[in-house]
Amino acid sequence: MADPSAVRADDLVKGLSAVRADGLVKVFGDVRAVDGVDLHVRQGEIFGVLGPNGAGKTTTLRMLATLLPIDGGRAEIFGVDVRRDPHRIRQLVGVTGQYASVDEDLTARENLWLFARLQGLAGARARTVAGDLLERFGLQEAADRPLSQFSGGMRRRLDLASSLITRPPLIFLDEPTTGLDPRTRGQMWDTIRELVTDGSTILLTTQYLDEADQLADRVAVIDRGRKVAEDTPDALKTQVGDSTLQLRLADGSDTALAADVVRRLLGEDPVLTPESGRMNVPLPDPDRAADVLIGLREAGLGISSVSVAKPTLDEVFLALTGHGADDEPGTDDESRTDDESRMEAAR
Ligand SMILES: Nc1ncnc2c1ncn2[C@@H]1O[C@H](COP(=O)(O)OP(=O)(O)O)[C@@H](O)[C@H]1O
Ligand SMILES: [Mg+2]
Hints:
Pfam families: ABC_tran. This is Daunorubicin resistance protein DrrA family ABC transporter ATP-binding protein. Keywords: Antibiotic resistance, ATP-binding, Cell membrane, Membrane, Nucleotide-binding, Translocase, Transport. Helix content is 35%, strand content 25%. Helix 8 packs across helix 11. The longest helix has 16 residues. By secondary structure, the chain is an alpha/beta fold. It has a 6-stranded mixed sheet with strand order 6-7-8-3-9-10, with helices on both faces. It folds into 2 domains: 260 residues, Rossmann fold (3-Layer(aba) Sandwich); 69 residues, 2-Layer Sandwich (Alpha-Beta Plaits), CATH 3.30.70. The protein has 12 helices and 14 strands. It binds adenosine-5'-diphosphate and magnesium ion. Adenosine-5'-diphosphate binds next to strand 2 and helix 1.
């Protein structure tokens, strides 16, 4: 095996795109799981692939990572053709989620050491790298506990650490926070941002608009194997609609008067439900919520409840595709074919 550390982000010519995929296609039986997707990821950015279950996100990543054959189109990673030079591609890309068959009885440190050895690092170097990664991912304390005692968040961090052993310049994260609690999710987001600060490029998939919003510089929205939009998170949200300030006025407060306050402050017409004292205010800029609340207080109007609702993935989908994110006919990740298992084994 070539020395993987020979390929490093700083060695690569600046200005190259990290991923350039054109017209990617993957067909499973009569399902076109990926149906002509273009993805152009620049070096040093976080690029998000956003879509519901079954949209084709994982399949796209797996083709780019050489874990699945590409049925149509072409892809280059840092200028290297994915089909022509799969060995080189594997040195350039770190993929999470591929170490599913780790030994539960081994400790985190042993697992990392083992992966490092498998990737061709010498014993002493493997130990150093494992130690560094455990520290970096806040796993030192748990380092010598068996994996069977690890929480979901710790496993995710260890998985990410494993994909960084060879310090690949491009990292694929397939739904890195699905199923994590909010605090662990936030920690994972911080970790991902740090990777970019250190010079990595990230291609991640997510089902959550807020995750794409938090992390991604640019987002491709995928629906039934096709890209239906690509833009910055802000631009996507603007396309879809504004956040909404949802208020319920205190008993006896005057909704008409409240509406006047909103119109004066924001120049927007709120939606009123006078019977229940509810008022929904479109917020082009969420910052203005405070202005509305202060304005209402100054007008002597009481508020019994308040919340700000952001556009959801469902709304993004409805706006972009005319159908919801949930009415997807496809099956989910469970149905792996023998073909794919063999690919995994081959890698
Ligand atoms: N190995 C496979 N064999 C058959 N169909 C598959 C296989 N992998 C994925 N699919 C199908 O391809 C579509 C896209 O799946 P996937 O890429 O996993 O979507 P996502 O990651 O966006 O949830 C789904 O309809 C899924 O059922
Ligand atoms: Mg998936």
